[in-house]
Amino acid sequence: LSDGITWGGWIDSPVAETCVPAPSAGAFMQLLLVQALRPDRLQSAMDSFVRTQLGVESIAPPALSLPRVCDEADAATPVLFIVTPGSDPSQELEEHAEKAMGRGRYHQLAMGQGQADEAMRLLTECARTGDWLCLKNLHLVVAWLPTLEKEIYVLKAHEDFRLFLTSEPHAKFPSTLLEGSLKITYEAPPGLKRNVSRTYEAWSPQYISEGSPLRAKLLFLLAWFHAVVQERRAYVPQGWSKFYEFSFADLRSGADIINQACDGSADPQWSQLHGLLERAIYGGRVDSGYDIIVLRTYLQQFFSNEMTGGGGIRVKSLPGTNITLPNTTDHREFTALLRRLDEANSPSLFSLPVNVQRTVQVTNSKYVINSLRTMAAAGGTSKGFDRAVWSAALSPLLRSWERMTASNPALRSAPPPPSSGALPPVDAFVELEQIRGHRAVAEIDGTLSALARVLDGAELLTPAIFAAGRCLIEDTVPPEWEKHWEGPDVPVSYCKGVVHRMAAVNDMVERTRRGSLLSGAVRLEDFFHPETFLNALRQQMARDAGVAIDNLTLVTSWDGTGPRGVAVEGMRVQGAVFDGGKLRDTASDAPPFVTLPKCGLSWAAPGSPGSGGPKGGAPPLRVPLYLTEGRERAIAEVQFPVFDAEEASKWILAGTACFLGPVE
């Protein structure tokens, strides 16, 4: 590591996993080096490691072949498709059944409340006639599955009969039915090109040609939009904040709305079409307000005169491509457009920044590492208390805590007495943070000290100590700790976070007593509850201005000319780069998060000086400020200047968001 030139070049390499500058290290050691120094390339490194060790070209499963599956199955063996949310093999099954058996010999039923009798009737009838039957969504009726299983085993079925079942994974799915079935995992085809192609395989040339060229264009835009919102899930949490279950049923319902909108000769009412697709179909699956804004922006982008050429407006290309829609109802011309696309997705197809893949790799790698850590830790508690096992597992955490407390003697000291008399809301909040921090430290110290005594044989193991120790061995934070502060999920990171914030809060208490807290910059990540700090600031500014607190809105200033509030430093932005005056695109080798310049946050009444936020050609862009990189909870909005609505849409679709600074 002392060779700065060699390692410096490797740190900047876009394919660091292929050129680790430690040739004498084994393959697994090189993998660990990537994990420690280049976590943004860990997913690729793990993929390469597994392929090399197993001697295979790819770890991706082979493409699904329904004819081969149906040939392997027989009348007595059901085929169970284990599906992921948003995927549905029934459309492909229906098409294959029509080719293999003829029209009218395939039947399907979506299971739910009240469908059990109809399912039994169809099962008996199809087994008698030799037709094919698909029972969908069995995970919704797991209590009824033993009845289905008994009926399957006593069936005297025609040799041509085939039974297909679909279900999402479910803990209570009968194991005997699993063992007696031919099991197939099924996922929606990856890649936007395959996704749209699959839709056009389901839509016949006759269906596309039934209406006007405008209808044909809108159907293609719907298929494209549907593929975009599905494939954007590969970029969680920057694409969407979580995985949403957009399915083929949404596409089918959207097509019905397109057909209704194109019934007359007049152009469709775009706002009405946007509202129906958002509120009646796709938006019903989205539970984040900021994701709804992304969805709405996509709808406005795709379903517009700019895409269809309506109103004499010049037609725009589809985002990330040079494709413009033909004025035709010919199915072949639309499918020909897809052949111009690459198989692999490009971030530009989704209006995402070019460095988004680094974020995806970090997120996926964290998931794998956490899963491995949980699997490894589970063995330490499966057999109850074992002093040697527990000591080996907990000793690193106990030693780490001792080092933290030794370097911060004030942590274990009693908190100073609260100030006498009424305090301004911000000062009162800071003192309350100090009290909360001392309680969190006391809780952690009490738990770890008790565990140390138990491991030394100086104290008996109580149920409470056992429960806390079990959590820590499994690398999770005990619930008693989280009552004081909801921090990181990993115990070591949690302890470091408490110690860091406790030291920062102690310093801020001294600043409040000198009356200088708001005269200098603060870092929001130094608080245990930063959202409560912003509310205390709101209350204080409302009191100073003599206005109702509900009349104030949070305003951002980047040039120091806004209302006087608090200067904040250390925040980060993802999806863009900001120089204090303008948002700019990220470079392909840019880190996922970039530190923002110092800004001012204040609460202002509408119409007061500076209440409009940073000035641009359009109203400022409001970007969520998240507590963590996982985007689970936003605590405020940060404003950025933008030139016009088109620029605002660009940054919305890029997944631009702000985050608190990291805690070292």
What does this structure look like?
By secondary structure, the protein is an alpha/beta fold. Helix content is 46%, strand content 10%. It contains 24 helices and 16 strands. α12 (248-261) runs antiparallel to α13 (270-281).
- Class of secondary structure makeup: alpha/beta
User: Largest beta sheet, briefly?
Assistant: 5 strands, parallel
Q: Estimate the global geometry from the Cα principal axes.
A: globular
Strand order across the largest sheet: 2-3-4-1-5
Q: What is the strand content?
A: 5-15%
Number of helices: 24
Low-pLDDT stretches: none
Strand tally = 16
Amino- and carboxy-terminal Cα gap = 21 Å
State Rg.
30 Å
Mean pLDDT: 90
- Which range best describes the helical content: under 10%, 10-25%, 25-40%, 40-55%, 55-70% or over 70%? 40-55%
Which structural traits does this protein have?
single chain; 664 residues; alpha/beta; 5-stranded mixed β-sheet; 24 helices; globular
Give me the secondary-structure topology:
Elements: H1 4-11, H2 27-37, H3 42-54, H4 66-72, E1 79-83, H5 90-101, E2 106-110, H6 116-129, E3 132-136, H7 145-154, E4 162-167, H8 175-179, E5 182-186, H9 192-202, H10 205-209, H11 213-231, H12 248-261, H13 270-281, H14 289-302, H15 305-308, H16 331-338, H17 356-378, H18 387-407, H19 425-455, H20 463-473, H21 479-482, H22 491-513, E6 521-522, H23 530-545, E7 553-557, E8 566-568, E9 572-574, E10 577-578, E11 583-584, E12 594-595, E13 599-604, E14 621-626, E15 634-640, H24 645-653, E16 657-659
Parallel strand pairs: 1-4, 1-5, 2-3, 3-4, 6-8, 14-16
Antiparallel strand pairs: 7-13, 8-13, 9-12, 9-16, 10-11, 14-15
